[in-house]
Design brief:
Number of domains of chain B: 3
Strand content of chain A: 5-15%
CATH architecture of the largest domain in chain A: 2-Layer Sandwich
Helix content of chain A: 40-55%
Strand order of the largest sheet of chain A: 1-2-6-3-5-4
Low-confidence stretches of chain A: 1-41, 466-512, 514-530
Number of helices of chain A: 18
Number of strands of chain A: 11
Distance between the termini of chain B: 50 Å
Radius of gyration of chain A: 24 Å
CATH class of the largest domain in chain A: Alpha Beta
CATH architecture of the largest domain in chain B: 2-Layer Sandwich
CATH superfamily of the largest domain in chain A: Metalloenzyme, LuxS/M16 peptidase-like
Number of helices of chain B: 18
Distance between the termini of chain A: 30 Å
Shape of chain A: globular
Strand content of chain B: 25-35%
Strand order of the largest sheet of chain B: 16-17-18-19-20-21-22-23
CATH topology of the largest domain in chain B: Cytochrome Bc1 Complex, Chain A, domain 1
CATH class of the largest domain in chain B: Alpha Beta
Number of domains of chain A: 2
CATH superfamily of the largest domain in chain B: Metalloenzyme, LuxS/M16 peptidase-like
Oligomer: heterodimer
Largest sheet of chain A: 6 strands, mixed
Mean pLDDT of chain B: 87
Helix content of chain B: 25-40%
Structural class of chain B: alpha+beta
Mean pLDDT of chain A: 81
Number of strands of chain B: 23
Largest sheet of chain B: 8 strands, antiparallel, barrel
Largest interface: A-B, 189 and 182 residues
């Protein structure tokens, strides 16, 4: 996750600044001398990440709590992470984890609908939630003195969520709208759902987090209540406070609001085991919104926090992270064969994935573009990274880690994942060393064993408008001609906005001057602003 | 642009967010019959005692060449951030070359006397640093940041791109191509079309009326032109360098002197601009975007500039009316009426002038009703004193969000840049929360009556002119219609179409040609072909119609004919529920072609083709 977010953020920055073909020829431009490089490396070799205070304890009901105190600014972030994601879903019950995330904003015993975000907004806070394969996350950032409000809100929905027929029906519709706006109405997105089905054989890994609309329609209130009871129990969650608070006072508040919520039986452990081979090597997706053909390559790679994952994550950085990356330099700048080339990771506790998405320029042959990508992977697997690239990796790893730490929300989210997945929130302080310890040889070997092989999936995305037949992801039911879909939209309410979910990202500097007013932007992230 | 968007959506495919779903607040309430609840849970808890916010007092000095330097020693983390801010923005573009400042700033890091574009990019990447530049209407900035152990290297890069950019010919050419592409792309975006039209309406001959370059101006941005404009605008006596981070003041100052001390002073003559026009009536400007499912509404009045003494009461008023999702506009148009995902207001207070605006993207059929609600809320803001609770919520929002915004070095620098660029008081940050808290409901009503002037408002709507014209007529004294290229159009009432109730009278041969029964083939979502029959009837001058097939029968109403094209509202009954959609098409040599749009999730537009039934 950490790497994914960093990559997404850095890529956004890199992509948004205009920078094109080489101004001058000549290999790697350097203005400083070799000696300087040497001394720089020494500087970064000696770097020690300033540790942040981490204290962990467990309530009687099994809720794991982590305090990360930093009182430099009177702000506190609260993160509640539930150990349920699409990996926990069975066939016929897909989309539940995400549907639940919606339900969590529908009110609880003492908080009316809309109350959650209105309380937070009126306090000047910010909040959101999101769902991945691994977990469902809720978080808010508040002025420090509003900590009780955040704990009250989070505890009320943990103990008494309003799982009613009305809410369920409404949120089913909301999810269907979300799917329509964010998947079915967008180019290339449904292709991404398909590539996971091609990489993974185990249903727990292969199916999409948005799930099947048919499954959601089939869910009864009892199903959903039972899901809530088991997966949203305190013993299946972690609570992280990061920022400015008095530990004693905070501990009393946490006990007051959370300790009486009853423990439940532990949920069954999901089976996410996978064979090494990808499920399907080749497929074509007819995309009715795509203007240009594109392709996605997908690899199955070892789980997060394994030596190979660290090495592959850095191999990915070298291949597709930012404007100095190999693929960007080769294909966006060099042969100008692509409009965009991007890569990212699906970081999971079980078998994980790496993806490369390429949008060839009009007139360029996608097959040739794909070959260029594969050649670059082979070159990395054969020659390994250069000394300069290792220095770049090192500095970027340190910079990302340090910069992210400015934000209480970033700290809370990262700590929550380490606490939930690994039982060790202090990994937030030490994980950087694991990445920094990776050698050039390890990157080369990992690229050779996992990437430069025949064991990957290729999905060609073809514009359906040009006479092709439109297809949907296999897991999603398509409306049959002549038979309108079984659900009817609620005409009295608008559809969801298309703004993508952007989990918190380390604050990044920008050269774009801010709006010439300091009127705060709306704090509720589900709203779009012209 | 395309790349950025794609990246966002790709990531979004894997991380779903659901806080977004505010669909159904207004309906039922939470369940009853829970077990016994502790009393403390029944009410939201009050806040704890406020915790101190120690805003660092910046050290400030000025170099002999006039460059102001602001330093904040922030030792929390081994990081440093630099921002060079220049009191020259888009407003300084020559009248015949809009977009010049944007182009200059975007090319700063594409080559200097010492480094090529690639060398700059490589060095920034190798240091794990960032280096970006940009301009807004009033000012321009160049931002750099890095681990503090690379603070000197990245400051050297920043100085190089600020002082010695060369605007290499090949980079200029690429940037021009890219900018031309961007001009095309922005015309597909309703938000851009709305801002372009509103800027022209509000600002007249003032340069704030210009929001974009033109193909001609981009063509004129030669290497020489960029170089000369850079030389005239980038002068130290018009600039501020802000440093926040893990630095020692003396060391940074020495370094800044070395790098920027020889920067030559220049002219900073303030230009005089024509005043924005005074408004005398409520006027509507429609940017016609046929087929739009939504209307993008912006309502605005001229308001204050950034240094006005009314700034703080206007901030509070803005929160009461529409700055966030518990403000009045959101509660009314979204929560109660369900017209839109969100309705907001915005205070746009710039250096030389400003506006106060209200915005929403609403479903086409409720465009008129949305205007009604907007004007209801604007009237209420003027006529009624804001309640104590709303005042409390608005102030708590503004003061609460303030520390969140300065949590990071970048957040603090953004605030310091505004203070310097708009010459705000030195204690602006320290007194910000007190000044908010001092505003009374009477202050808010006073500024509402002064600046919120519904009778003189400018309304811009980007949407389907034919579909909204009848709805919006009652809300404006005058209406002008523009096409998406920005050209004035004749109003649709002047064409061969008169609306009468639910159906439309069409005159002339085109309508007659459409009347009849058409055998059509609809391409289903899977590519399958579905036979159907489309019928258009004319009775007493009114057009109605229907489509029938395997799926049943759907009625067509609001049939509009314009030349050889038609457009209609489709109503389909599915198991007792009404589903709406649109059917539009055109006739060429007795072949009918068009698209059926159904407002159902997962259903893409369905194309159809057909010919007259024998």
């Amino acid at each position: 996750m950490k790497r994914l977010l960093h990559q997404a953020t850095a890529a956004l920055l890199a992509l948004s600044s205009a920078s094109f073909a080489l101004a001058q020829t000549g290999g790697v431009g350097r203005t400083s001398t070799g000696n300087n490089n040497q001394s720089r490396s020494n500087v970064s070799n000696q770097f020690r990440l300033p540790p942040t205070a981490i204290e962990q304890f467990t309530l009687k009901n099994g809720l794991r709590v982590v305090f990360n105190r930093d009182n430099s600014i009177p702000v506190v972030s609260v993160a509640v992470y539930y150990n349920t994601g699409s990996r926990n879903e069975k066939q016929g019950r897909t989309g539940f984890a995400h549907l639940f995330e919606h339900m969590m904003f529908q009110g609880s015993e003492n908080v009316p609908k809309a109350g959650h975000f209105q309380y937070i907004s009126n306090a000047g806070g910010d909040m959101n939630g999101n769902t991945t394969t691994e977990r469902t996350a809720y978080f808010e950032t508040m002025p420090a003195n509003q900590l009780p409000l955040a704990l009250w809100l989070e505890s009320d929905r943990m103990r008494s969520l309003a799982v009613t027929k009305d809410n369920l029906d409404n949120q089913r519709k909301a999810v269907q709208e979300e799917k329509r706006m964010r998947y079915d109405n967008q180019p290339y997105i449904n292709g991404l759902l398909r590539i996971n089905e091609m990489i993974f054989k185990n249903f727990a890994n292969a199916h999409s987090t948005i799930g099947s609309m048919e499954d959601l329609d089939a869910a009864s209130v009892q199903d959903v209540q039972e899901f809530f009871r088991i997966y949203y129990a305190p013993n299946n969650a972690v609570l992280v406070l990061s920022g400015d608070f008095e530990p004693k006072e905070a501990r009393a508040l946490v006990s007051k609001y959370f300790e009486t919520i009853p423990r439940q039986p532990d949920p069954p452990a999901p089976d996410v085991a996978e064979p090494a081979d990808v499920a399907t090597k080749q497929d074509t997706y007819n995309d009715r919104f795509a203007q240009l053909p594109a392709f996605i390559l997908g690899w199955k790679i070892p789980p997060r926090r394994t030596p190979d994952f660290y090495a592959l994550s850095l191999a990915g950085d070298l291949l597709f992270e930012g404007e100095s990356s190999r693929l960007y330099q080769k294909m966006v700048k060099g042969d100008e064969s692509v409009v965009a080339i991007q890569g990212f990771f699906g970081e999971r506790r079980g078998p994980s994935s790496m993806y490369i998405f390429a949008l060839p320029k009009p007139g360029k042959d996608p097959a040739q573009v794909r070959q260029t990508v594969l050649n670059e992977i082979k070159r990395l697997a054969t020659e390994g990274p250069t000394v300069e690239e290792m220095e770049k990796l090192r500095n970027n790893l340190i910079n990302d880690a340090v910069r992210g730490r400015q934000s209480s929300l970033f700290r809370a989210q990262q700590i929550a994942e380490f606490a939930l997945y690994d039982g060790d929130p202090n990994l937030f302080n030490t994980e950087l060393d694991r990445y920094l310890a990776v050698t050039a040889e390890q990157i080369k070997q990992a690229a050779k064993r996992f990437l430069d092989t025949d064991n990957y999936a290729t999905l060609n995305i073809v514009p359906a408008g040009a006479g092709g037949r439109a297809s949907g992801p296999q897991s999603t039911q398509q409306p049959q001609p002549g038979a309108p879909p079984p659900t009817v939209p609620d005409k009295t309410k608008p559809a969801e906005p298309t703004k993508p979910a952007t989990p918190v990202q380390p604050a990044q500097p920008t050269g774009q001057p801010q709006q010439p007013t300091d009127t705060p932007k709306p704090q509720q992230s589900g709203t779009s602003r012209p | 642009m395309l790349q950025t968007t794609t990246k966002l959506i790709l990531c979004a495919a894997f991380i779903l967010s659901g806080a977004l779903s505010l669909e159904t607040f207004a309906q039922t309430n939470a369940q009853q019959g829970m077990k016994q609840t502790e009393d403390f849970r029944k009410q939201a808890p009050p806040p704890l005692a406020a915790r101190p916010l120690n805003i660092p007092k910046p050290y400030e000095t000025t170099l002999p060449n006039g460059l102001q330097v602001v330093i904040v020693e922030d030792l929390r983390l081994p990081l440093v951030s630099y921002r060079l801010a220049l009191r020259a923005g888009d407003v300084n573009d020559p009248a015949d070359t809009p977009g010049l400042m944007d182009m200059v700033t975007s090319l700063l890091n594409e080559g200097t006397a010492r480094r090529s574009s690639k060398q700059i990019a490589d060095e920034v990447a190798r240091l794990g640093a960032t280096l970006t530049a940009g301009a807004n209407a009033d000012y321009s900035t160049v931002a750099a940041s890095a681990l503090s152990m690379y603070g000197n290297e990245v400051l050297d890069l920043l100085a190089d791109v600020v002082l010695n950019p060369t605007f290499p010919e090949d980079e200029v050419k690429l940037a021009q191509q890219n900018a031309l592409q961007g001009l095309k792309q922005q015309r597909s975006q309703p938000a851009f079309l709305a801002s372009e039209r509103m800027a022209q309406v509000l600002f007249g001959q003032h340069p704030y009326s210009v929001v974009s370059a033109t193909p001609e101006s981009i063509g004129a941005m030669s290497h020489e032109r960029l170089l000369a404009f850079h030389r005239s605008m980038f002068v130290p006596n018009n600039a501020v360098l802000i440093v926040v981070g893990d630095v020692r003041r003396d060391e940074v100052l020495r370094r800044v002197n070395d790098l920027f001390g020889k920067w030559q002073k220049g002219q900073t003559n303030a230009r005089q601009f024509p005043a924005p026009p005074a408004r005398t009536e409520r006027a509507l400007y429609i940017v016609d975007r046929p087929g739009s499912a939504q209307s993008n509404i912006v309502i605005a009045n001229p308001a204050i500039n950034r240094t006005s003494s009314d700034y703080f009461p206007m901030l509070v008023m803005n929160v009461v009316l529409g700055a966030n999702a518990s403000s009045r506009l959101f509660m009314n148009l979204r929560e109660q009426k369900g017209y839109t995902y969100g309705a907001y207001s915005e205070l746009d207070a710039r250096g030389l002038a400003g506006s106060f605006r209200e915005t929403a993207e609403v479903r086409t059929p409720v465009t008129g009703p949305s205007l009604k609600e907007f004007f209801y809320e604007l009237g209420r803001l003027r006529d009624e004193v804001v309640s104590d609770k709303e005042m409390r919520d608005a102030k708590s929002f503004l003061t609460g969000v303030f520390p969140l915004q300065i949590e990071t070095q970048e957040g603090l620098i953004n605030r310091l840049v505004q203070i310097k660029m708009y010459n705000l008081p030195a204690d602006y940050l320290q007194t910000y929360r007190d000044r908010i808290n001092a505003i009374t409901a009477a202050d808010v009503q006073r500024v509402a009556r002064q600046y919120v002037q519904p009778d003189k408002a400018a309304i811009v709507i980007v949407g389907d002119a034919a579909a909204i014209m009848e709805q919006v007529k009652p809300y404006a004294q005058t209406i002008e219609v523009y096409d998406i290229s920005g050209k004035r159009k004749e109003t649709p009432t002047a064409t061969a179409m008169v609306t009468t109730g639910t159906a439309t009278t069409a005159t002339g041969a085109a309508a007659t040609n459409l009347v009849g029964t058409w055998a059509i083939e609809i391409s289903g979502p899977g590519g399958q072909s579905m036979p159907a029959t489309l019928t258009i009837n004319q009775e007493n001058g009114k057009l109605t119609g229907k489509v029938s097939g395997q799926f049943g029968e759907a009625n067509l109403s609001n049939v509009n004919v314009n030349g050889n094209s038609f457009d209609s509202v489709l109503t389909l009954n599915i198991s007792g529920q009404t589903v709406n959609g649109r059917v539009a098409g055109s006739l060429a040599s007795d072949k009918l072609e068009g698209t059926i749009n159904i407002d159902i999730p997962n259903v893409a537009p369905l194309p159809f083709k057909g010919s007259r039934s024998k």
